[in-house]
Request: fold
Amino acid sequence: MAALRTGKRGKIFLLETLIFLLIFAMTTGVALAQQPIKIGVAFGLTGLWSDWCKRDLIAVEMAMEEINAAGGVNGMPLKPVIYDTASKPSEATRVVRKLATDDKVLAILGPFSSSECEVAFPVGNRIGIVMIAQASSKPGVAAANRPYAFRNKVDELRLAIPAIKKWKKHHNIKTVAIVHDAKDAVSRALGTTVLPGVCKKLGIKIVNEGKYVTYTTGDFDMRPQVTRLKGYEFDGIVFGGVYMDGVTFIKEARRQGVNQPMVGGNPLMHLLFLLRGGKAAEGVYTSSEFYYWMPKPSVQKFTKEYIKRAKNKGFDPPQPLQFDVNVYDSIYMLAHVMKERGITNKPGDLARDRELIMKGLTDLKGFPGLASEISFNKKTGDATKIIYVVKAQGGEWVLVD
Amino acid sequence: MLIESLPVPVDHLRGNGVLKGEELFIQQLFNGVMLGSTYSLIAIAFTLLMGILNMLNFAIGEVFMLGAIFGLTFVNLGLSIYTAFSLAVICTGCVCLVIERFSFRPLRNAPPLVPLLSTIGFSILFQNIAENIWGSERSQFPEWMEPIDFHIGPILISSTQLIFLGAAVFLMVGLDLFIQRTRIGRGMRSVAENIETASILGVDSNLIISTTFFVSGALAGASGILFGLSFSIVSPFMGMEPGIKGIAAMIVGGMGNIRGAIVGGMLIGIIEVLSVAYLGATARDFAVYGALFLVLVIRPQGILGMIQAERERI
Reply:
C-alpha cells in the first residue's frame, strides 16, 4: 500500500479518486437541484364544496404545467400533493398538518371555505407554512392568523360596498329585508355583520333588523322563510348565502310573488346560479374579482384552455370561475417569490424556505394576475384587486356600469 | 347565452302586498302540512319494514335520493315523466331487494343491531356511488316540469304539493287495504307475528319479506321523485335529512303503524315550519327533536302506537 501511494500508480489512483469524487458531487448536486418542489393542495374534493374544488384542480394542473414547461422554479419543477378535506373544518385541520409535517410541502393551496380556514389557518400558522385560500372571504379570517395565512381573495365587506351602492341607485332602494344562512361561516358573517353594516352606511333601512330571516346551508324548503318575508313591506332583498341556496331561495320567492330586486354577496357568483335559477335569477346583483369573458388577452387565453380541459373532464358549464383564477394566480405568485427569494428546496432548509415564501408574499406588490394586479395587505393577509359589479341578465352575469 | 330566456325588467318587479299575521300563520301551517306529507311518505317506507320485520332500514333515506336521481336520469334520456317515474320506482324497489339480499337475509338470525349497522353501510355506499357517478352538484328537473301554482284565498299551493298530500292519503288507504285484504298482505301480517310459524303454515316468508322490501323501496323512490319535482333539488346529499326526519316521524306516530307514520310526518313538518318561521332556522332541530323527546317521555309507544305485546302489527 505504501508503494502505491508514493509511486506513479499511486498518483494515478489519487487523480482517479478525485475525478470520481468531483463527478459524484456534481451529479448529486444536479439531482438535488431537480428535486420537485412540493406544493400542498387542501381542497374539499368531496362534500359541499366539491364541485368548486374539483374545478380548481384544473387551474392547479394548468399553472403547474405552464411553469414547469418554462423551466420550473430555478430548474426545479412544481409538484402538487393533493388531499381531500371533505369540505369539513376538522378534516381541513388534519390535512394541513399532514401536508406540513409528513409531506413536508413548501406551501399549501387552500383550504377553500371560511369555515375550514378558521380552524386550519391556526394550525399552519403555528407550524410556519404559507396557506393561500382561494375562496374564503369572511372578514378577518386570515388577519387572525398572520403571518402565514393568506387569501387570494378580496373580503366580503369590500366586495359588498360597490354592489349594494349600484343596486341601490339603479332600483331606488330605501328599505330592505335581510335573509341569510345561519350555519356557513361566510354567509353568517355576511348576513349578521357585513350586509347590514353596508346598508346602514348607505342610508338603507332594514325592515327586519334583529329578526333576520334565516335558513341553514343546503335547506331544500325555503317556503317558511319566503312566507315570513311576505309579512314585511320593503323595496329589496339582501341575501347572504352561497349560490345553491340562493337558487332555492330566489325560485321560491318568485313563486310566492316576492318579486323585489335582490343583491347578494360574492358566494352567489356562480354560473349555476343563472342556469338553475332561470328566469327567477334575472336581475340579481353581486360582485366579483373575475368574469370569464373579460376582454383581456391573458383572460381569453386562460378561458379557452380552461374550457377545453373542463369539457374533457365533463364539467358543465365548463367556463372558469373566480376561484379557479385565484388558484391559478396563487401558484404563479408562489413560483415568483420562490424564484425571487432563492429557495433551495433542501430538506435541511425547509423552515427557511417556508419563511422566505411567507416574506416574499407579504412584500408582494402589484403582481400581474390574470384579471387584475394583486397585492397582499400585510395586516389582513387578504388580496387587493379590482372589483367588478355584475348582474344576472339573459342567463349571463353582465357587467354593471 | 346559457339559458334561452329574456331578461325580466326588474324595475317593474315588486311584492304583491303584505300579508297579515293570521294569513301568514295559515300559509305557514299549510307549508308545514306540505312538508309533513314528504316526511309521511318516507316514514311509511320505514314503518312498513319496522312493522313486519322489526327492522330499521337506515338506507331508506338514500333510496329516496336514488329515486330522484334515477327519475331525473330517465327524464334526461328523453323518457316521459310518467315512464321515468315508473322505471325509477321499480329501480328503487330493486335497490331495496339488494339490501334485503345482502343485509337482511344472511343476518336474519343475528342480533337486531347487525342488520341495522349493515344498512348504515349501504346508506354510505349509495351516497358515495351517487356522488361519483352523478357528481356532487345539485341538479333539477327541467323547468317545464316545475309545479303549477294555485291560489286558494291567501294560500298558495303547488300541484306537486297536492300530489304529495294525495299520495300520502292514497298510500295510507291503499296499503291498509293491501295488508288487510290481499293474500300477500295476510302473508305480511303472519310474517310480522312470527316468521318461523308463518313458514310452517305454508307462507313463503322469503317472498313476503322480499315484497315488503320492494314496496318500501318503491315508496321511498316515489317520494324522492315527487320531492325532486316539488323542491327543484336533486343531489346525492338530499336523502340524509328527510331520512332522519322520516325516522323521527315514524317514532312520533308509533313504530310500525302506517297511520301513525302519516300523523307523525305531518306533526314533524308543522313543528319544523313554525319553528323556522317564528324562531329562526337555528331553532328547527331543537324544536323537532325536542318534540320527539317529549313524545318519547310522555307516550313512548308513539301517538298512535299500541303498547300490548299482542297488538296487531302494521
Q: What stands out?
A: The longest strand of chain A covers residues 37-43.
